[in-house]
Amino acid sequence: MSTLDLPIDYDSSEWSVRKQAREQYMTEQKGRCKHCGVHLWLTPEEPAPINWALFPSGFQKHPVHLHHSHVTGLTIGAIHMYCNAWLWQYKGE
Considering the entire predicted model, what is its pTM? Predict the structure, then answer.
């Protein structure tokens, strides 16, 4: 598998490219969340409650998400599902 030129445009990328980007970010980040720095296979600290009703039904299916800018569409890094929800709910990211 070839290496992607990161960041990618999240909105125009196929799911398989998004998956590859997430995995590549995980490797480049040495398995740590781009937002909180905790290892991606550990549960991060929850500083505030999440209103899960705000998110699509499959949102919690995967523990690691590909974070992207809702302004530019460009990917930022691999983050915990919880961190992704927190960033969207509390920071609008």
Answer: 0.91
